[in-house]
Specification:
single chain; 281 residues; alpha/beta; TIM Barrel; DNA polymerase, domain 1; seven-stranded mixed sheet; 7 strands; 15% strand; globular
């Protein structure tokens, strides 16, 4: 069982890296990728907690923006974590999240919604990449909404008046940097329209030119028709097809292993990295 997209308390998940490793073992996962938002800070703990029956894929989910302002998430897997240019790109993305959060809080407060930056920081685990899920958790704590899902549905979705974007690399720039760091690039949930505006099928040609390796086809936010269309695009462009849970612990309904990657597809994807970086014990 191969799950190539999960999150921990290093970003917006609710399980520590060690706890996620243990849950993956219990769930029968054999290959697990940890892909926190714009961060590799959970890698060390995950490696320490690793057990012989599990292979660990280290990565990150990189926040990007197209030139026309569409949010795209790019999974970088198996890249060199010591690559300075890669770490600089991740750090710059994280740094823009604080002013963005303050703007969103100001917009909410202007409408009389009870929230402050102190509330959000109190809901954010130490060292985590700050994001909307932490704002959602603060809104739950302040009894503005009942759940994180409700916060996103009513207040924090991409088309909300309270949504503020943040500076980010283009998808093409992120792909090139992942490649330069020796990793592989997989676009995450590209047709998940309920999250907001999505890229068109024609966009994939430019992403392939930049060095895209794969498409996350099987994801809970894709309908069956969207999965079929993405599979067709992957076949036409010679891209690897992956399936993933996008697990966040208690933060989302997603369950570990609810979507998986075919072993042959994974073997092909792994072979495209510059070195064998899967961690085993």
């Amino acid at each position: 069982m191969i799950d190539l997209h999960t999150h921990t308390t290093a970003s917006d998940g609710t399980d520590s890296p060690a706890a996620l490793i243990n849950k993956a073992l219990s769930a029968g996962i054999t290959t697990l990728a940890i892909t926190d938002h714009d961060s590799t800070s959970g890698w060390s703990e995950a490696v320490t907690a690793l057990r012989p029956s599990l292979s660990l894929v280290l990565g990150a989910e990189i926040s990007t923006l197209t030139l026309d302002g569409i949010s795209v998430h790019m999974l970088g897997l198996l890249f060199d974590g010591e690559d300075k240019h890669m770490q600089n790109m991740l750090a710059e993305s994280r740094d823009t999240r604080i002013p963005r959060m303050r703007k969103m809080i100001d917009l909410l407060a202007a409408d009389g919604i009870n929230i402050s930056i102190e509330d959000v920081m109190a809901a954010t685990p130490v060292g985590a990449t700050l994001g909307r899920p932490h704002l959602a958790d603060a809104l739950v704590r302040n009894k503005v909404v009942a759940t994180r899902d409700e916060a996103f549905l009513e207040l924090l979705h991409n088309d909300s008046k309270y949504y503020v974007t943040h500076a980010a690399p283009t998808p093409e720039d992120a792909i090139r940097q992942i490649n330069q760091a020796g990793g592989v690039a997989v676009i995450a949930h590209p047709f998940a329209s309920r999250r907001g505006e999505v890229i068109s099928a024609a966009t994939f040609t430019n992403l392939v030119s930049a060095g895209l390796h794969g498409i996350e086809v099987n994801h809970r936010d894709h309908s069956q028709a969207e999965r079929e269309q993405l599979a067709q695009i992957a076949d036409q462009l010679g891209l690897v097809q992956t399936g993933s849970s996008d697990y966040h612990g208690n933060g989302k309904l997603n369950e570990l292993g609810e979507n998986l990657t075919d072993p042959e597809q994974w073997a092909r994807l792994e072979s495209l990295a510059s070195a064998r970086r899967v961690v085993t014990k």
